[in-house]
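seq:
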Amino acid sequence: MKSKQTSLAKSLASAAQKPSTEKPSSRTPTQGKDRTVLIAAHYNREVRRTLKLIEAETDKTLRELLGEAINDLCEKYGKPRPVPEEGLR
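struct:
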């Protein structure tokens, strides 16, 4: 567990440093507001099934539901809500 914490601390310290002067990769967008990253995880099939049920009941997309969940999680831990309200619709 200690090495995981050390690795996380190093990653956070690295992220806090000044941005690199290297040119961005051609695979990442460099203009506009739609600069996004993929955040993914594997869960059992029941998680997907439940999310599909919530989608049908609420008429929200999976992206909207996950944005709402991320905002709730950040609020729980005292962090700013990273997904803007307009991003949830």
